[in-house]
Amino acid sequence: MKASLQTEIEKVVGKIIAVEVLGEQGCTSEVCKLETAQGSFLLKRSFEKRYRMWLAEEAKVLKKLMQEKGIPVPQYYGFIEESDSSSLIMSFENGMTLTAALTAAESIAEKKVLIKSFGEFLHKFHEQEPLRMLDEESDWLERQFGKAQSYVDNGETEGSQELLNHLKAHKPFSVKQTMIHGDCTTDNVFVQDGEVRLFIDVAGMTIGDLRYDISLAISDFIDSPELLDAFYDGYTRYRVSPEEIQYFDGGLYEFF
């Protein structure tokens, strides 16, 4: 860590006593645990332009949610931009991702309990009254198309122009908009004391189409009827069809 960055971070969290590198988060960021005189914090850093933009969006969302106790996310502490990187400082949360918890589970019964809690957690989130502070006052799907087009034009996605054209021409019927996480995979929810209790990676949290959240949420166990039923035992608001899963997870998500 550069001395200049450390100085800026210490203005926020106090003198750094120890730094523990926790590894990369996907391919977008590197993550460190900071031990300071004031406690433990998480430092998330991105270096490529696209990922720095995502990190800035995450910082913006967390900052907006500082006064909203009903949305379980890490606490925002600060955002620092330098010429070669962007850094987000937030609370360090004990626990593990649902992906890690499912890998560690020793039985199908244990996995079902975890996945049902995921369904209950997401159901409760979608049932909440949408926060106007997260409303961008434009159609969510059209915004996603705009971002996808930019990524295609700049060669920053595996999604193709042909796929994007197909998605635009075959939009699904409209549903009531809710708050959505926007990247609701098992990697992006945190398990604490045996239950899913926290959202992480909230750059895409906004008001949008709940089918996107659901489709991504079930993608890792879509081929296991037992685990899928456990999810829907907890999530009872809406059950996505195979066609909707293909549109949102198999189609739109290819661009992100």
Question: What is the element layout, followed by pairings?
Answer:
Elements: H1 3-13, E1 16-25, E2 29-36, E3 39-46, H2 49-64, E4 76-81, E5 86-91, E6 96-97, H3 98-104, H4 108-127, H5 140-153, H6 161-169, E7 178-180, E8 189-192, E9 195-199, E10 206-208, H7 210-217, H8 225-234, H9 242-248
Describe this structure in words.
The chain has 256 residues and is of the alpha+beta class. The chain has helices at 3-13, 49-64, 98-104, 108-127, 140-153, 161-169, 210-217, 225-234, 242-248; strands at 16-25, 29-36, 39-46, 76-81, 86-91, 96-97, 178-180, 189-192, 195-199, 206-208. The protein contains nine helices and ten strands. The model has no long low-confidence stretch (mean pLDDT 95). The protein is globular. Helix content is 40%, strand content 21%. The chain has a five-stranded antiparallel sheet.
Largest sheet, if any? 5 strands, antiparallel
Radius of gyration: 19 Å
**Spatial arrangement of strands, main beta sheet:** 1-2-3-5-4
How many strands in all? 10
Helix count, DSSP H or I runs of 4 or more residues: 9
Taking all residues together, what is the mean pLDDT?
Answer: 95
Could you estimate the helical fraction of the residues in percent?
Answer: 25-40%
Structural class: alpha+beta
% residues in beta strands: 15-25%
Backbone shape: globular
The N- and C-terminal alpha carbons lie at a distance of 29 Å
| Low-pLDDT windows of residues | none
The SSE string, one letter per element, is HEEEHEEEHHHHEEEEHHH
